[in-house]
Amino acid sequence: MGEQTSDSYARLLAEWQARRDIVNSYHRALRFLAPVSGAASQRQREQWHELNDKLANALRALRWLNDHMRRYEREHAGADSQ
């Protein structure tokens, strides 16, 4: 049973890390593509909004995974010390 729990935790941790990397990538891209002034083209603004939407989705997924990680750690904190 402990091995199955460990595998579940490892999968959750790997998914969390992947989501975190995605969020960081989108955030960096947004910083570089953000229109600085009204001189940005329509295409640049569209790209910025598209990346902004992806970042918002990635942030929601990351928060969801963070919540699951915390719950998992709370539930298994006592079991690991035994």
Describe this structure as you would to a colleague.
- The protein has 82 residues and is mainly α.
- The chain has one domain.
- The protein contains 2 helices and no strands.
- It has helices at residues 2-33, 42-80.
- The longest helix has 39 residues, at 42-80.
- The relative contact order is 0.14.
- The mean pLDDT is 79.
Number of helices: 2
Mean pLDDT: 79
**Helix vs. strand class:** mainly alpha
SSE string, helices as H and strands as E:
HH
Report how far apart the termini are.
Answer: 14 Å
Largest sheet: none
Strand fraction: under 5%
Write down the domain tally: 1
How many strand segments? Answer: 0
Please supply descriptive tags for the structure shown above.
2 helices, 82 residues, single chain
SSE topology sketch:
Layout: H1 2-33, H2 42-80
What is the gist of this entry?
With 82 residues, this protein is mainly alpha-helical. Helix content is 87%, strand content 0%.
